[in-house]
């Protein structure tokens, strides 16, 4: 059973550990989390893009419940 994802927790993980992809692990995006981990958040560019994408990923995950 899946639970709702918190937008606040997702953004806290993005801010502090996002360069390692931890926020994507929290949101169930295992493949992209591994890519983030291996490339340092796509050299930091992907980390910046995720400031917007995180909101939509959380909404998508919670809508699928």
What is the number of helical segments per DSSP (H or I, 4+ residues)? 4
Secondary-structure content class = mainly alpha
Ends apart, CA distance between termini: 9 Å
Count of structural domains: 1
Order of helices and strands: HHHH
Total number of beta strands: 0
Helix content: over 70%
How much is the average pLDDT? 95
Largest sheet: none
The coarse silhouette is globular
Strand content: under 5%
**Radius of gyration using CA atoms only:** 11 Å
Poorly predicted regions are none
Which tags fit this structure?
65 residues, globular
Q: What's a quick, concise take on this entry?
A:
This protein is mostly helical and about 60 residues long. The chain has one domain. The chain is built from four helices and no strands.
Secondary structure layout plus pairing:
Layout: H1 7-17, H2 22-26, H3 30-43, H4 45-63
Structure description:
The chain has 65 residues and is mostly helical. The chain has one domain (7-63). Helices cover 75% and strands 0% of the residues. It has four helices and no strands. It has helices spanning 7-17, 22-26, 30-43, 45-63. Helix 1 packs antiparallel against helix 4 (45-63). It is globular and about 30 Å long. The mean pLDDT is 95.
